[in-house]
Every structure is written in structure tokens, then in C-alpha cells.
Design a protein that fits this description.
Elements: H1 15-27, E1 32-33, H2 58-61, E2 71-79, E3 95-104, H3 109-123, E4 131-136, H4 148-160, E5 167-169, E6 181-184, H5 186-189, E7 190-191, E8 205-215, E9 242-256, E10 259-273, H6 274-281, H7 291-303, H8 313-330, H9 342-361, H10 369-380, H11 386-389, H12 391-420, H13 427-437, H14 441-450, H15 457-473, H16 488-508, E11 514-519, E12 524-529, H17 536-551, E13 556-562, H18 563-568, E14 582-590, E15 593-599, E16 613-623, E17 626-634
Parallel strand pairs: 1-2, 4-6, 5-6
Antiparallel strand pairs: 2-3, 3-10, 4-8, 7-8, 8-9, 9-10, 11-12, 12-17, 13-14, 14-15, 16-17
Helix pairs in contact: 3-4, 7-10, 8-9, 8-10, 9-12, 10-12, 13-15, 16-17
């Protein structure tokens, strides 16, 4: 059997085997295997998607007790929309699986570094001579010292494998200089959800980390056209020779008003991308050459009339990555489908970029995205049953979006070709393509770049802002919350809407979010995310929960705060709406007995006891995976 030059293992492990080996390894270290959380964050409106394994576990890292214990392990579905433009370089994907293990105040550096090193070298069989590590060099400004403890552990681990591991402070001018352990500053070896220490908000946990890299081979940076050719190489540069395969974060700090303080427990938060581990385990230097993507590549080669991936790298990678991401998002039991807002906009952008690159490959077949989706679902359905359960929904949404975009793309390309004759694309022209042709700005930008033209992005954003302001002026005289007036009855219905939304979430689950409301003095109307018709039992239960809150006569209060603070503390809101810098957060309840927290412009009653008994008079579909209820006060 032939192997790539840097493959050092006699058995090529498929990605499913690697995932299972990882989970089983840490299960053997007394870790509880927990399921992947949804890609759509629960009670965290500050971000559209789960982008790291630790994101669903923040409360437990801050000290809450996890029901499964202090040692956890899983493979978490992740999606990073910020990487959409990077896909096509052989190693970036938007959707990925993050293998993660956590210690919630239990073990720390000594155990974590040893265990992952053991997993890489003994269980995956990676060549230890290709492994390099980084540690935190310390920062006196934030009062956190150099991580010499991790260096000592790494030295011992490498020594056990017969390697004298030298350590050195990173310097771009020196390069590797025979070292294996490198000290980097907080730009590289500090981790929190918000980046470097200075960017962290008060209350955010974080800490120094130790990353492990794999050497794919010195020849990768020596291509004739490489901008890195001839420059000193270090493991954290972008030349392509080294790739990070795991990051052990020692999360023991929290940002406070006065600086950094120790958390009440020392945590380990580890993350390693399954796709990257599969790549190095299978002796590849390209993620898309692993078995994760082989079936989809074969399917796309057939659809494109025999064009080969090796000759069309970027179009293949964009199409397969984007459709994989869109499939996972839409199948995630949250009713996300292509739209012009929030997660739906990202899904639309993924699908339309894939279709656009399909045209570049010369795919002639209509409604072809469904075929790639079927391959993706087949590859993953054993581990993620939601893909099979929601297959019909996913495929119908793909087909509908493909029909819409094929029309928009054909018309938009004709218009673009007319515009480009005159030279660079103005902001107004880009906006007209977007508004009248359904042509995403990103595609206008890409086409312009391919034609050697520039697009006035600032001008486009100004035109978009003017359009949004004009649209909002059509509802002048109404409150932002959807009220028709501020009469006493309307005010009561407004408060009742908050209660009903919280009751719906309690009965139906945290995937329920407000999609819109309309309130008059006679009734309330609430649109909310949910995939199916409510049963009569569910409606009765929602009513019972809501009327119990009214009967308990809970206080209704508000506090003014910054939008980011409101999001941080978990206040609900319709976040496609443009809020100001300061918002009001209305709370129903007090202390430990809080039933609802929502960003809202008011007005509200003082106590829930002022309301009448709620009666839901109608429940119906509003749009795809969105339900609508109408309610009155019963006499």
C-alpha cells in the first residue's frame, strides 16, 4: 500500500474510527460522554452558532455543577460563519466537529497534557518527531506569569519518547532553530470566547493554553510562488507547513472590573478538530483528501461531467463544505431555513455560493444540490440521527432555494455583465443587484475581483441603511414591540405576550424564539419558531403555565443597560431588529423566581395580577417552521 511521505502509521483510520477512539479513550479516564449540543445556541442571543466545544458549557466552567460530573468528553458540532471566505485553501471549513474533553475543577495540566499526548502517539500512532507545542509566555500587565509548568511537563513527555525538547521564546527572525517547545504571547496562547485578555468583557472566563502542532513537511512552503519561500519558518506561521491539531486551555481566570482573578475552580477545556486529526492520521496535507469528503467529491465529479477535484480544488471545496454546513444547520431541529435574517441568511449565503460555483464547474442538472445533501446525510446519519429525521425538510428547502437563486443568478449575471463594461461597481449598482435581482453582495464582490474590478462596499452599506430606514418609516406611530397603541388593554396584552412566550419555551423547549408580534386592544398575536402544529394538550399546558404566572401576581420591572450586557445576561429579543446602544430589559418575577427577561420598548403593567385570564383562540402556521397563536383575555 502506498503512503504519503509524512504518513507514519500502518493503518489508515477513518474519521468515524478516530471519533470513537477519542471518546472511548477519555471514557477510560472516567469521563462521561455527553451529546453534542445544537448548532443554534440556547439562551445566548449574542452569537448565531455554536463555534467551539466549550460554548454550551460556560456555566459549568464558571462553577455550576454539571449533572454528568466533573469529567466530560464529546464531539461537538460547530459552525463558524466568519470562515466562509476562507474555504478553498485545503484546510478551512465552516462546519466541523470539535473533539473536546473537560475537567471542571478536577484534573489539570499534568494529566491533560499527558493524556492527549498519549492519545496522539499511542492510539492514533502519529510520528512524535512531527509534533511541536506552544505555551503562554506570560504577561506582566495582566499579572499572569510564564507557563513554565507546562514546559516542564512537555519536556518530560518528549524525553520519554527519546526526544530532547528544547524550549525558546518565539521570534520571527529565528524560526525553528532546532526547538520543539515555543513560548508565544496572548495573541497566540491565550483563549477566551472574545479573544485576547484586553478584549474580554467583565465576567468572561479564559486562560493560557498549550497548543500542539503537526509538521506536514518542509516542502509545503517551498512552492515557487509561495510568499513564505525563503523565510524563517515557525510553527504558528501561515505558510502551510504546520497545522494545529489540539488546544488545551487552562481556564482558571475570570475578567473583573479590576483585572483578572482566579475562578473558584481550575478547569481544563480541550478542543481538537476531527477533520484535522483525520487529515494527519491519514497521511494527508489537505482536509478534503480524507475519507470525510471522498463520497461527496465522487458525487460532485459525476455531476460536473467528469471534472476532477485535483484540477478544480476551490469550486469542489466550496460546494461540498457549504452544502455540508447548510445541511447540518437546517437538520438541527430548530426550523432554520434560507431567509434574509440571522441564521437563515447564513444558510442562504451558503447554498447560493455553492450553486454559483456549481455553474463554474458546468453542472447542467437542475436541483442538483439535493444529490450532494443525500451523500452528506448518508455519511453522518448513524452519528447524527437528526439528519435522517429531517431529510425531507432539508431537501425541500434546498430545492426551493435552488429554484429561487437560479432565477436570481441568471438575471443578476446578465445585469452584472452590463454594469462591468463601465468599470468599477458603485455602491448603488451593487445595492440594485441585491435589492432587485436577489444577488448577494458577496457574489458581486467575488465576480468583480475575478474581473479586476472594485466594488464600493461602503457605498453599498450606506444604500442598504437608507433602505432599512425607509422601510422602518412605514410603521411610524407604532411601538417597536408591535403595539398598535398604548391603551390600557394593549399594555396588558403586551405583558401577556411576554408571559406566553416564556410559557411556550417552558412547554415546548428552548428552541422556541419570538419571530414577531402584533398587539391591539382586542387581542395579541405572537409568531414563534416551532416545526409542527401544537396539540390541544400542548395549548392547554401553555395556557395553564401562563395563567399560573398571572395568578402568582409577580412584579414586572425594567432596567436600562447596554445591548451587549443585555445579551450577555441572556435577555430574549428579536435580534434581527436594530436596537439602540441602550435597551430596556423587562423582567417578570424577582430574585430566584424570574419567569421572563426580554429586551423591549414597553409599556407594561406593574404586576402580572393586573391581567385577565389568557385564552388561546387560534394556533396556525405563519411560515416555514414558524407558528402563530392568537389570544384574548377570557371573561
Amino acid at each position: 500500500m502506498a503512503f504519503d511521505v509524512h504518513a507514519s502509521i500502518c493503518h489508515i483510520m477513518k474519521f468515524k474510527e478516530i471519533r470513537k477512539k477519542y471518546l472511548d479513550f477519555f471514557k477510560g479516564k472516567k469521563h462521561a460522554i455527553i451529546p453534542s449540543a445544537s448548532l443554534i445556541p440556547e439562551n445566548d442571543p449574542s452569537t448565531l452558532f455554536i463555534g467551539s466545544g466549550m460554548q454550551p458549557l460556560v456555566l459549568y466552567l464558571l462553577g455550576e455543577k454539571h449533572p454528568a460530573g466533573k469529567r466530560l468528553v464529546n464531539s461537538q458540532k460547530c459552525f463558524r460563519a466568519e470562515d466562509i471566505a476562507e474555504v478553498g485553501d485545503s484546510r478551512h471549513t465552516t462546519f466541523f466537529e470539535m473533539l473536546g474533553n473537560w475537567s471542571l475543577g478536577d484534573y489539570f495540566k499534568k494529566e491533560q497534557l499527558r493524556w492527549f499526548f498519549e492519545f496522539l502517539t499511542d492510539r492514533l500512532g502519529l510520528d512524535v518527531n512531527r509534533l511541536y507545542v506552544t505555551v503562554f509566555k506570560g504577561n506582566s500587565d495582566i499579572g499572569i506569569t510564564r507557563d513554565e509548568e507546562s514546559v516542564a511537563i512537555w519536556r518530560e513527555l518528549f524525553k520519554e519518547k527519546g526526544i530532547n525538547a528544547k524550549d525558546i521564546d518565539f521570534s520571527e527572525n529565528q524560526g525553528l532553530v532546532g526547538s520543539r517547545i515555543f513560548y508565544y504571547d496572548e495573541k497566540k496562547n491565550w483563549w477566551s470566547r472574545s479573544g485576547v485578555p484586553l478584549n474580554m468583557p467583565v465576567g468572561e472566563p479564559g486562560g493560557p493554553d498549550s497548543e500542539i502542532f503537526y509538521d506536514l513537511g518542509a516542502d509545503l512552503k517551498r512552492h515557487e510562488n509561495s510568499p513564505f519561500c525563503g523565510q524563517p519558518c515557525h510553527i504558528n506561521c501561515d505558510c502551510g507547513r504546520f497545522i494545529e491539531i489540539g488546544n488545551s486551555v487552562f481556564m482558571e481566570y475570570v475578567k473583573t472590573e479590576s483585572g483578572f482573578e482566579k475562578l473558584k475552580q481550575r478547569n481544563v477545556d480541550f478542543g481538537g478538530g476531527l477533520e484535522r486529526l483525520a487529515m494527519v492520521s491519514q497521511g494527508k496535507s489537505n482536509i478534503f483528501e480524507t475519507d470525510l469528503f471522498s463520497s461527496a467529491i465522487s458525487g460532485l465529479e459525476n455531476l460536473s461531467g467528469g471534472k476532477k477535484y485535483q484540477d478544480n480544488g476551490k469550486p469542489f471545496e466550496v460546494i461540498i463544505d457549504h452544502l455540508r454546513g447548510a445541511v447540518f444547520i437546517m437538520a438541527d431541529n430548530k426550523g432554520i431555513c434560507p431567509s434574509n435574517t440571522e441564521q437563515g441568511y447564513v444558510v442562504r449565503r451558503l447554498i447560493r455560493r455553492a450553486i454559483r460555483y456549481g455553474r463554474e464547474l458546468g453542472i447542467k442538472k437542475d436541483l442538483w444540490t439535493k444529490e450532494i445533501a443525500e451523500i452528506i446525510i448518508k455519511d453522518y446519519r448513524d452519528d447524527y440521527p437528526d439528519l435522517e429525521n429531517n431529510k425531507n425538510f432539508v431537501e425541500s428547502q434546498l430545492q426551493e432555494e435552488e429554484k429561487k437563486f437560479q432565477r436570481a443568478l441568471g438575471n443578476g449575471l446578465k445585469e452584472f455583465n452590463k454594469i462591468k463594461i463601465a468599470g468599477n461597481i458603485s455602491g448603488r449598482q451593487a445595492f440594485d443587484l441585491y435589492q432587485t435581482r436577489g444577488f448577494p453582495f458577496e457574489i458581486t464582490e467575488e465576480l468583480a475581483k475575478e474581473n479586476g474590478l472594485k466594488v464600493d462596499k461602503i457605498g453599498f452599506e450606506e444604500e442598504l441603511k437608507k433602505h432599512q430606514e425607509l422601510s422602518r418609516s412605514t410603521i411610524a406611530g407604532k411601538f417597536k414591540s408591535g403595539l398598535a397603541d398604548a391603551s390600557e388593554e394593549t399594555t396588558k396584552f403586551h405583558t401577556a405576550t411576554h408571559i406566553l412566550l416564556a410559557a411556550l419555551r417552558e412547554v415546548l423547549g428552548g428552541s422556541v424564539f419570538q419571530k414577531g408580534s402584533n398587539i391591539t386592544a382586542e387581542r395579541l398575536r405572537l409568531d414563534f419558531s416551532y416545526p409542527e402544529k401544537l396539540s390541544s394538550e400542548q395549548i392547554e399546558k401553555v395556557q395553564a403555565v401562563a395563567n399560573k404566572i398571572i395568578q402568582d401576581d409577580l412584579p414586572v420591572s425594567f432596567e436600562e443597560m447596554g445591548l451587549e450586557k443585555a445579551k450577555k445576561q441572556g435577555a430574549m429579543g428579536v435580534f434581527e431588529t436594530r436596537y439602540g446602544e441602550k435597551v430596556r430589559v423587562y423582567t417578570i418575577g424577582k430574585g430566584k423566581n424570574i419567569f421572563s427577561e426580554e429586551i423591549c420598548a414597553g409599556p407594561h403593567v406593574k404586576r402580572t395580577g393586573e391581567l385577565g385570564k389568557i385564552k388561546i383562540i387560534k394556533e396556525e402556521s405563519s411560515s416555514a417552521r414558524t407558528r402563530r397563536i392568537k389570544a384574548i383575555f377570557a371573561s
